[in-house]
Amino acid sequence: MPHIVVEYSDTLTDAFDRPGFGAALHPVIAKTVDTAVAGCKTRFRRVEDAFLADGAPGLAMIHVEVSILSGRDAETKRELSAAVLEVVRAHVSPVPGLTVQTTVDVRDLDRDCYQKHEVAHPA
């Protein structure tokens, strides 16, 4: 925990610095919600088939869903959402002729039901 899922238009594949985004994002999340960077997990999903707005060409999207353990107040979640949006913006290069819609959603994981298991295997 936290779990981050990023969906992005395939037209942004070369413009979206995903490793840089993950490296910058995890410390921001850890600081904002008081957790460890080691627990952050980000998955990227390239979207090849999406219909945006009125279907006009030249539109792309990035949607970031951040799932954190329940118990944080609304202000912390708003702060996290704004911080994530800034990190995204810093890691996407402009693509001529493309308008990028970026959204962030912060969700709660039920603290009473969430489970984690970790096994370290010796090298």
Automatic annotation (TrEMBL):
<protein>
    <submittedName>
        <fullName>5-carboxymethyl-2-hydroxymuconate Delta-isomerase</fullName>
    </submittedName>
</protein>
<dbReference type="InterPro" id="IPR014347">
    <property type="entry name" value="Tautomerase/MIF_sf"/>
</dbReference>
<dbReference type="InterPro" id="IPR004220">
    <property type="entry name" value="5-COMe_2-OHmuconate_Isoase"/>
</dbReference>
<dbReference type="Pfam" id="PF02962">
    <property type="entry name" value="CHMI"/>
</dbReference>
